[in-house]
């Protein structure tokens, strides 16, 4: 599981909470509806189709042009700039984060008591590797009375960066256990607890958090996919990983889910080749894996980050050797002319 990418996607999908005070600069009904629509598009974005982002940008640009002192609109525009500039992992296109900070600066200038802008700015400065500024922004949000779940998640991320795992875990648990908190905030907090338990080597507790992740979003393949990766790479439970990945694919046909199903199937095949010395027993798993993701060499190359795949690398090497032997023998017995 790519914790940085997942947590970032969840954070950026966070919209305004119902606890936020009304903006000082009121919008027309049409602009208010457009802002809700744009925020909804940002909420739904998971890093795939970028066209909704551009629709949101068009709407937000029009709103801030007509309402230059409306703080929530500037905050949403900052979210857009962070999302559209995200190129993978913790990386952003040059200038994207600075542009987001500019938008948040305008939100705060429009309403200095707008806590939600400081909550987002805290995470923005963390991503910009400005931890002291991030701390100051989150403290400002606290001083304004915010108890936003994302405030706790952002504190937890900062504390995790500082190696303060116990304190980070307390913030994550506050959100993860709060049934009234927004779903995406609880998902991000649960992801944080997973990392917390993995870092501590507490696999059973991490396992329980993966189950919670699946339960929180039962209609999504995402939790099943992350759980499948964990079962394969951390617990070497390839049968469990296969079951989880299949459950995810029954919900959504996601590329990552297909990959981890294929990886677990290749691991089952490798078990038959390397451990059990029963090549015939692994043929069905290999054929299914090939149909899903034919790049067995690519899967085997990921053994450094998923040790269970070392068996796949061994099986792949044995297969290549056995396929090369008949060709070599045939060449040796073919008469020359």
UniProtKB/TrEMBL annotation:
Keywords for this protein: Signal, TPR repeat
TPR repeat ranges, renumbered to this chain: 115-148
PROSITE patterns from the UniProt entry: TPR
Signal peptide range in chain numbering: 1-19
The keyword Signal appears for this protein: yes
One Pfam family linked to the record: TPR_19
Alphabetical list of InterPro entries matching this protein: TPR-like_helical_dom_sf (IPR011990), TPR_rpt (IPR019734)
Gene3D superfamilies: Tetratricopeptide repeat domain (1.25.40.10)
Annotated protein name in UniProt: Tfp pilus assembly protein PilF
Taxonomic source organism: Dokdonella fugitiva
């Amino acid at each position: 599981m790519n914790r940085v990418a997942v947590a970032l996607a969840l954070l950026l999908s966070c919209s305004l909470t119902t606890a936020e005070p009304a903006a000082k600069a009121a919008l027309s009904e049409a602009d208010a509806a457009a802002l809700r629509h744009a925020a909804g598009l940002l909420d739904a974005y998971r890093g795939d189709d970028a066209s909704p982002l551009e629709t949101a940008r068009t709407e937000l640009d029009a709103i801030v042009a007509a309402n230059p002192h409306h703080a929530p609109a500037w905050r949403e525009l900052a979210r857009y700039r962070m999302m559209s500039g995200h190129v993978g992992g913790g990386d952003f296109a040059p200038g994207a984060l600075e542009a987001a900070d500019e938008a948040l600066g305008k939100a705060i200038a429009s309403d200095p008591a707008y806590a939600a802008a400081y909550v987002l700015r805290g995470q923005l400065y963390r991503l910009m590797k400005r931890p002291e500024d991030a701390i100051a922004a989150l403290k400002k949000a606290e001083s304004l009375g915010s108890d936003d779940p994302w405030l706790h998640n952002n504190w937890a991320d900062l504390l995790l960066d500082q190696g303060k795992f116990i304190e980070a875990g307390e913030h994550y648990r506050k959100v993860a256990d709060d049934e009234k908190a927004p779903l995406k905030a609880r998902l991000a907090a649960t992801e944080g607890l997973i990392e917390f338990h993995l870092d501590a080597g507490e696999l059973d507790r991490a396992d329980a958090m993966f189950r919670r992740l699946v339960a929180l979003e039962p209609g999504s393949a995402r939790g099943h996919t992350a759980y499948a990766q964990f079962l394969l790479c951390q617990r070497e439970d390839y049968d469990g990983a296969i079951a989880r990945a299949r459950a995810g694919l029954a919900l959504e046909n996601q590329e990552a889910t297909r990959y981890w199903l294929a990886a677990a199937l290749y691991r089952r095949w490798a078990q038959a080749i390397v451990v059990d010395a029963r090549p015939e027993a692994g043929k069905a798993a290999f054929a299914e894996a090939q149909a899903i993701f034919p790049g067995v060499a690519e899967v085997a190359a990921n053994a450094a980050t998923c040790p269970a795949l070392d068996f796949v690398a061994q099986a792949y090497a044995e297969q290549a050797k056995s396929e090369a032997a008949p060709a070599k023998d045939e060449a040796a017995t073919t008469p020359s002319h």
